[in-house]
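Reviewer 2 asked us to include a model.

Predict the structure of this chain.
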Amino acid sequence: MENNTEKHEAEQANGENRMEDILKSGSVISRSGDETIHCLTIIGQIEGHYLLGDGQKATKYEHILPLLVSIEESGEIDGMLMVLNTMGGDVEAGLAIAEMVASMSKPTVSLVLGGGHSIGVPLAVSAKRSFIVPSATMTIHPVRISGTVVGVPQTYYYFERMQDRIIEFVRTHSRMTEEDFRALLMRTDQIATDVGSIIDGREAVKLGLIDRAGGLAEALGELRGMIKGEKSEERKVKRE
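Predicted model (structure tokens):
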């Protein structure tokens, strides 16, 4: 009887800890069979160096960066699923997260649900494998800034350099060519008050921006396959 009570209390404590993780960082650890997967969500607007209003859903990069370090260093976590539904946000914060995900050695898979807009595009392609549901959309547009802009050549040069960083990252981590990406950036017939393009899930796959169309089951299946392949390779190296 005591063992059953202790087991129930342990399960309740684990459940409370999981809920706390979800509330704090939008992440949860899932254990199934031999695989332990960390699910990380990137939602709303990506908050950078300036605080957003209380009424806005936001992903805080100062929470995500140390969390990614802990996932990479953990001996218990085998891989990471990154789920995105973001409108974009701070360019440098988003690019910092994307660069860190891309540099992880563990298997990583991204899944775009709803939308992966603006700086969400580099985030979507930063994982080793990327998925998108057919109904999701992605907005591709040039770098923008709000507030006071000093109209001097140095300012425009800064924007151009930042845009080049994003283009190079996307080109390096996807099958999309630089020419195709720049063409989408500068389209004038899709967005009423801006230049750029809006593409759906099937178009993103066709253009080579995202690897495959699929949902949660497909993304998890791919991640588990990558984890099993890596563990098999590790066992092979140990035997040698």
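The first helix runs from residue 2 to 25. Confidence is low (pLDDT under 50) at residues 7-16. We have added this to the supplementary material.
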